[in-house]
Predict the 3D structure of the following.
Amino acid sequence: EGESKINTKQFDAKGSVTAAGITVDTSNKLVQQIINVSDSTVLNRVDLGWGIIEAGGSFRPSEAVPNRAIVSFNKADITLENGFIIRLGFFFDIFALFKSGVRDNGWLETTYIDSDCRVGRGNKGTLFVLTRDRDQVAP
């Protein structure tokens, strides 16, 4: 019935996240996507060692695609190690002006989900493979 020994090797993550034209190298960094269903918000967080980058906003279910959430980003913060915060969320307000006030500026689509793992894709083509941190899940 097959071998019982499973060979494993260290995973060397390579990747980046791009938002509003800014690309952040996320290779071997702690990347989190925090979805709060009770208040319909999403927060993407990357710890770069010298600081934390966060981008987030509200979401709503897509009317056209059942497994898609439409996101209206309004937060883009860079928090440096010394506590200084650079707030760039106003760029989303400027982008909305050019889109006739439309604030929807992204989507997240879930292609697989179970109690421990979610696989999804973003509107820029980013593939997310995320695991649940059970210590962070609120009942």
